[in-house]
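Hi,

Apologies if this is the wrong queue. I'm a grad student, and the batch job for Prostaglandin-E(2) 9-reductase-like isoform X1 from Dipodomys ordii produced an output file that my downstream script rejects. I'm not sure whether the problem is my script or the file. Here is the sequence I used:
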Amino acid sequence: MNSKEQHVGLNDGHAIPQLGFGTYVPKEIPRSNVIEAIKIAIDAGFRHIDTAYFYEVEEEVGQAIRSKIEEGTVKREDIFLTSKLWSTFNRPEVVRPCLERSLKKLQLDYVDLYLIHFPTSLKPGEDVFPKDEHGKFIFDTVDLCDTWEAMEKCKDAGLTKSIGVSNFNRRQLERILNKPGLKYKPVCNQVECHPYLNQSKLLDFCKSKDIVLVAHSALGTQRAKQWVDPNAPFLLKDPVLGAVAKKHNRSPAQIALRYQLQRGVVTLAQSFIEKEIKENIQAFEFQLPIEDMEVLEGLNRNFRYLQCVGFADHPNFPFSDEY
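Support response: The file is valid. Your script probably expects a header line. Output copied below for reference.
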């Protein structure tokens, strides 16, 4: 079954393909691998591609998408493309310039979804991670409601069809939702979400507000050395997940993805291996019974792979709250 047949409605009238292809590349992997992986993903049936200014692969993402359009495999409107506003651009006056830079790199006229990447603002400038002489991040103080107003203007300008947030907790979402003069609600909140961190309370809250939860790191992350503790457990090697996979004659990754799809979560799968990319899209081809879903729910341990400790002292650090 093709992923373009499986969509979730957004609160602004648009729809998002429920399974997406993530494009964050650990430094250990050559950037050229991104182009090939996206082409394979589109050929396999992925129609939702997720990227970000911070990933520094927007040129490659745009190149891969445009090549598939040029050869007639897809039209631009078939592809749902997400990008994100990086933390050094949270000041309202630089929100649109950041999106315009992304569009220039992508060589596209619009993105389908634009997200505030992280609620913690950093000092504006060309450095992705501005640091002081002690190697600590240089924070900036920005009212996220002001950032959101600038996001709304990007939507009105046609530079993005939908707007949302990423890595926000409940309190930060409520701050946007309760903003006087709110024009558009966030359509989604993209957060780390997998069987070890199932985000059930945040998921329930988002559903109650008609906000879609999007799961990044749904397979336990790419384990990038600069972000993930090398001693962190391997989600896909979990024996319980493995037992459910064996029962259904599926891969552990397919089970982890299927678990999210059945919860109504929009899910990002990431791999640079052709066999795995093709397997991941097959998560639509089977159903997990309630008892297996309950077993997978039991794996939750509130374990976060991406702890982002460098942001921990920022007043808007999102992970201090329960959810």
